[in-house]
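User: I'm preparing a small set of examples for a lab meeting where we compare how different chains pack in three dimensions. I only have the primary sequence for this one, and I'd like the structure in token form so I can line it up with the others. Please keep the answer compact; I'll paste it straight into my notes.
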Amino acid sequence: MTLQDDAAYRAITTRDARFDGRLFVGVTSTRVYCRPVCRVRTPRRENCRFFANAASAEAQGFRPCLRCRPELAPGLSLMDSSAALAQQAARSIEQAAHDGQVLSMPRLAARLGVTDRHLRRIFQQHVGVAPIDYLTTQRLLLAKQLLTDTGLPVTQVALASGFASLRRFNAAFVERYRMNPSALRRARDDDAAPPTAPQTALRLRLAYRPPYQHDALLAFFAARALDGVEAVDAHGMRRTIALPHRDASVAGWLAWRFVPLRHEVELALAPELAPLAGALVQRTRQALDLDADPTRIDAVLATMPFDARAGVRLPGSFDGFETAVRVVLGQQVTVKAARTLTLRLIERFGAPLRTPFADLQRLFPAAAALAGASADAIGSLGIVRQRVGALQALARAVCSGSLELHRAAPLQQTMERLVSLPGIGEWTAQVIAMRVLAWPDAFPATDIGVLNALGTRDAAQAAQQAEAWQPWRSYAVIRLWQALEDNP
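Assistant: Understood. Below is the structure token output for the 488-residue chain.
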């Protein structure tokens, strides 16, 4: 074993949750791989093999532990490094797996601006396995979670996990895990869902690395909550959502709550959202920034001129278009004013939705609804002409497919496309990069809150000062906003 392996072994002997998702341990005596937080008896040092990701462990013939469940482990956040291309490709592969999409590597390479051969080489170099093996692992781990946590029929699990047929799913599952999918079925724990969720809801568990500022994230969402679409309480949130699925749109609700003692989030989904369970797991992970690595982030934020706060998280997005619209409406106005304008937009263009909750009864307006509306109809809500133009340009770009707004979208191309739209400048693009693209190093230097917190009106000076906080400047922005709230 190397010195690095010695450190990894110390992490599993102490069951250090900070390393959850950053390493996996394969045990040669059982051919099972585990998370470092697994509660089973610690294996002997000479029987341990350490891996950076689940796909690498499975490529060496290890199967996932049924107790610690590697599919629950947090992932890795994208950061600015020499491995950024491979990480961006991994995000795209994960999204395709969870969305049930067919992934074409040549098409993915073209989106990322490289050749297919170069992408495969870089991916193998930095991730340790071929892209197709990584994709298969992501699909099987999602299937394992759905089989364990929900009562979905095996056929629905196969389709929701991205497999084209039940036969292919069964074959892949038996080959990798040496058991039939039905062997994972067990009595579900009905207490695992948020207490306000109906018993028919699908229930899933999502892990994160501590520390985590639960109160700060909830306060962020609560200040921006949209009546009829979102409801935030002291433990979590409920909201409506609509996603495309097989040339149609599926609408429903989701609810989540924090479980700090387990370092987990409990997610409940409406039964009609079952085919989109994988996609919603990924969206929830991004919206709550569950894949963040606070050990690295906090070390950089400790250099900021404020009291240190451990576990800063970057509030993300459940729906990229929705968040982008809210950012546009927030241009040069307060959070409260932006919320008022957004509520008017929902009342006029949001479709009604029946849910089990009295305070959730509308969907956020779809891109097609805003793209097809008249400018006068939107302007009559009190939205200035420039914002109307920006909203409709954004909606039309999304409808045409020329703009993708999700965490797997290519960063540079998306940013260039955004600033080319009328009414969308650098501030808007940077905030969208923070919250929609989950880019950890965005920095809206002209943001009035950022400037006030830094005690300057010089955006260039603010940008220069922020260079010390790379590659986590998005988190620095959140910390600056928090500092402003502490000292208005």
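A couple of notes for your slides: Residues 160 and 275 are 5 Å apart (CA to CA). The chain has a mean pLDDT of 90.

User: Perfect, thanks.
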